[in-house]
Amino acid sequence: MSGPLDQLKIIELGHVIAGPLAAALLSDFGADVIKIEAPNRTDMMRDLGPKAEDGVGVWWKTLGRNKKTLGLDWKSDEGRDILRKLVEDADVLIENFRPGVLERAGVGPDVLHDWNPDLVVLRVSGYGQDGPMRDLPAFGRAAEAMSGLAHLTGFPDGPPMHPGFPAADSTTGLMGALGIMIALFAREKGIARGQVVDIAVFEALLRLMDYPVPALTGANLSPRRNGLRQPMDFAPGGMFRTSDGVWLSVSAGSAETAQRLLRAVGGDALADDPRFATLGEMSRHMTVVFDAINDFVTQHTAKEVEAVFARHDAVASRVLSVEEIMTNEQIRHRGDIVSVDGEQTQVIGPVPHLSATPGQLRWLGRPPSADSQSILRDLGFNDERIAALCEAGLVRLEGGRAL
């Protein structure tokens, strides 16, 4: 089955996580992605972190999924001509260099749109393409700090903390994919032709966190990190450890679900206490609520807690390790962990699940320049010309071989 985006052609000049993840998310649904790497310098994600048994970095295997790879010095005159041929037939170009890199190479958005007025250009950078911090270097952790995420993570008397995954880069990839699709929709509807999607790495987290700004400006409340509890304690919940050492995340999102939770841990006396009649009232006495939940959970095993919560239709979710994720019945039923033939490494499958045009994992990250020869042939280059480009160091073929 062909994917819903199989006519979408993407040129990826990105590296590391944010830009490449945006392309990978779209590739899951059929987008034809050509990832360009310099002939003598490949994406660092190929080597960063642990390696699979075949010696390939496991992070690269998933970030490079479903992509063709081309080794090309696109900053050279001849390389830029090849890039132009690719751009003229593309729908999207993705880059996540520092602001100004494309312009200095003579391929800024004005040039790209001269080559292809309908091209959507996703530009990912630390702080955006303009503003007083435009030229400063940044990584995901800097973005997590700037967005306020680190400030709200950790214990009140402890230091700010980063989450256990690259949250800023990952959410930027997700938001970048959304931006691309919005721009393509505007193009399809005749609202705009090709346009630039400009996203700073801190902005995706800033938008998804959202509530601290209206909390401060609208209610004069400043959220603070609160350990195992919510920063603002607006609803009951938190992390609790059972008597047999299992961590559970307990939560309630409405007055009704909060009442069910209180009835589970403290019976009618607790649930019918007038202090907990509404979420607003409850938030003013959240320490009492937290202590009641903690007393109940810590005195029971995980199975006992889950059984009681199930009877009251309340929510307590085990905190899963990676090993437990791999064996979880719901995750397995949903088909959320997938593999391809000939690969031991498994990855998370396409999300979301579409009923008529589901995503598909076609292959994991390919070797450097694996598709250089076929891509150049499709552009009209014969083998003699490709050999000359290789000899000049402008193009690389798989394994560095010559024709």
Automatic annotation (TrEMBL):
InterPro entries: CoA-transferase_III, CoA-Trfase_fam_III, CoA-Trfase_III_dom3_sf, CoA-Trfase_III_dom_1_sf. The keyword Transferase applies. It comes from the Bacteria. Gene3D superfamilies: Crotonobetainyl-coa:carnitine coa-transferase, domain 1, formyl-coa transferase, domain 3. Coiled coil: none annotated. Pfam families: CoA_transf_3 (PF02515). GO terms for molecular function: transferase activity. Keywords: Transferase. This is CoA transferase.
